[in-house]
Amino acid sequence: VSSAPREKVVRVALSALRSLAQCYAEASPSPSSDSKKEVTGATFLSEMIGCGLIKYVDQMKERQWTDPDIVDDLNVLHKLLHENFKEMSTWDVYLAEVQSGSLEWGFLHTEKFFKENAKKFEGTNGDFSVVKTLVALTASNDEEVQSIACYDIGEFVRHYPNGRVIARSLGAKDIVMRLVDHSNEELQRHALTAVSKMMVSNWAAVH
């Protein structure tokens, strides 16, 4: 949607997104469970929000479109996305963004957010799956995503009790260390800072 130059392409993309946002289905049960799982538009709306679609839909609504179907789809998507966003907690939005792999600088990647949400990084199963995903995102092809992943890992280490041990046990230190010599200066800086946080027990005392 964000890069589609032709109205025909935009119309098809928006129609597909609208269908997902308004869908309802029952997924087949997994081998370990007999119960079917409901899949609703809210599931896809959360993923769309995580990918940053709200920003693009807001921008597209400001443009003049000749196709009435595009205008209608944009209005519906705008309404559904903003309604769903209001119902999501800050953590829900962060989780959706991390799972989408489309990290963007903003209020979710700040010291304040990590102070308030550090314990939630444990996950419902205590497996720190979000941290594992962040570690994986340091290998993204997008250097901004890599930089943000490094920042988030460093902030998790700072604010989660025993975060240094957890991060190192997940291989974060060795993986992020490889980015310290990266040609991109911003990525290099965030990688170096993250590694430093993993090595220093009291970051506030030296920073």
Automatic annotation (TrEMBL):
GO terms for cellular component: vacuolar proton-transporting V-type ATPase, V1 domain. It comes from the Eukaryota. Residues 87-203 form the ATPase V1 complex subunit H C-terminal domain. One of its GO terms (molecular function) is proton-transporting ATPase activity, rotational mechanism. Keywords: Hydrogen ion transport, Ion transport, Transport. InterPro entries: ARM-like (IPR011989), ARM-type_fold (IPR016024), ATPase_V1-cplx_hsu (IPR004908), ATPase_V1-cplx_hsu_C (IPR011987), ATPase_V1-cplx_hsu_C_sf (IPR038497). Pfam families: V-ATPase_H_C, V-ATPase_H_N. Gene3D superfamilies: Leucine-rich Repeat Variant (1.25.10.10), V-type ATPase, subunit H, C-terminal domain (1.25.40.150). Belongs to the V-ATPase H subunit family. This is ATPase V1 complex subunit H C-terminal domain-containing protein. It comes from Skeletonema marinoi. The lineage of its organism: Eukaryota, Sar, Stramenopiles, Ochrophyta, Bacillariophyta.
